[in-house]
Amino acid sequence: MSTIRRRLLAVGIGIGLAAVVGLNVFVVPRVFGAEQPDPASVAAAAAVADLPALATALAAAPAVRWSGTFESADGAAWALDARVTTAGTTLGTIKSATAIGEILAIGDRVFVRAADGFWGGMGITDARRTGFADRWVDVPQEFLGLDLAGAVGPAGITAPVAGAPTTVDGVAVQTVTAGERTFQIRTTEPKGLVSVTAPGYRVTPAVLDDTERAAFFTQLRKAAAELPTAAGLGSLITQKGRAVLQACDSGSCTAKVAFTNRVAPTAKHVTTGDKVWATIVLTRNGKTAKICPVSLTLAPGASKAATCAAEVQARNGATWRATTTPATALSEAEAKTITEALEAELPA
Q1: Are strands 137-139 and 231-232 parallel, antiparallel or unpaired?
Q2: pTM of the full predicted structure?
Q3: Fewest CB within 10 angstroms: 27, 150, 190, 250, which?
């Protein structure tokens, strides 16, 4: 290669390099030097966008444990540890500074079971206090004011707004507010809800694993099987006086039993229109001859008589007796319906 050619190539390469360098000088700042989004702003925007889906996914989980605190209808502070199914069926414990109780919610019915001290703390100082001890009691939805689905569910999440980022147990979370509720969302994988704060609530979710879920479902079934003996909150209906046996012979007998509502009209948590169920049991020579369910709706202090008649094929002498069982909040059919609904919800 001639010296002139080598010089021309050198000049050409030099010009090319200069052009490339010049290109880099003027183009690179425009492509790579532009202002990048703030990572915190990106995480906040992602959390806002993810919130509805995360809340919906949590609500759709087969079973979730919610633990934290809530404020009851009377303003008392309670610690809460509740397990909840996709359908909202709930079993858990509530604990205040002075009392502890169990809660069970199936469908639109809520039940509480606790010692007599719990009921005393709720203002029930009459004979119901001891009658309710360690027995499921059917209470109105507003008795405790506990509404987990409303407090933590995806319904009503509109116009969420990002708040300040923070950390929880060393994990980066983003605060997002939607209406009166504040959600903390884990911003690293796996993303998820860390806590929910709503008026009267501050709770943390944890999806149950297979073993925990199986144990939960077993306990739910056991609790539902105990509901046929559940009491009604607003009344205390018991037998009044002795049963009167009428027209009794070897093969037939009729029992007349009076029932009374022992709750005073001035007592707390009294209801006047709730129906309860009692049972009259007629026995002949020590064997059950007839069981008669009796539905009762009694105002405080009111009484009502009911009858139960039995007929049997027998000619020998007979000794008849009539006894009653404590009034319950559910009829046999209602208790069966609740159990069947639970079985339809839970896996086999």
Answers
A1: parallel
A2: 0.83
A3: 190
